[in-house]
Amino acid sequence: MYQPAEDSYLLQEYVKEYAFGRVLDMGTGSGIQALTALKRTNVKEVVAVDIDEEAVRRLQQGIKEQRLRKIKVIKSDLFDRVEGHFNLIIFNPPYLPKDDVDKEFSLTLSGGKKGNEIIERFLKEAKKHLNENGKILIVFSNLTGKEKVDNIIKKNGFKFQQIDYQKLEMFEELYVYEVY
Q1: Confidence tier at 111 by pLDDT (50, 70, 90)
Q2: CATH number of the domain residue 170 falls in
Q3: What domain range is 154 assigned to?
């Protein structure tokens, strides 16, 4: 299960601002984005999705203990088991380029050989689940390839704007995009 880090906290700031109506948190991990969206009074429902059974179990347990409403958690490989349309889809994808790694690293951090294969799969399906005027918030690293991600977004019929940027120590940079 992916524990919140710089990318999570950067994205969280925009979830606070953008979340309304029906919200989908794809790759929910710890549930930080789903729980942030749930706090917004104009959010009607949050659907939190993860492929990792342990992440799903832990989030379901936390929801039950806190007696939270308006949220459901689904174990799914991206949109495979997701139904309906959303006003906002949040995605903090695994985006590091790697393929020969252990399973846990692969699920939480590896976006495939190039680092953008998961993002590409996500964007191919996302449009089918967005309401009219719906938006996607996505965070990714320069290690994924900013130009590659830009091209994948355009290739899938979306427009986008970069709404934030953060330079991390050493060589990594994070980008937050609003995709529509």
Answers
A1: very low
A2: 3.40.50.150
A3: 6-179
Q: What is the pTM of this model?
A: 0.89
Does residue 1 lie within any of the structural domains? Answer: no
- Among 56-60, 116-120, 124-128, the range scoring the smallest mean pLDDT is 116-120
Contacts of 151 (CB under 8 A, 6+ apart): none
Q: Is the pLDDT of residue 123 over 60?
A: yes
Say how many domains are in the chain.
1
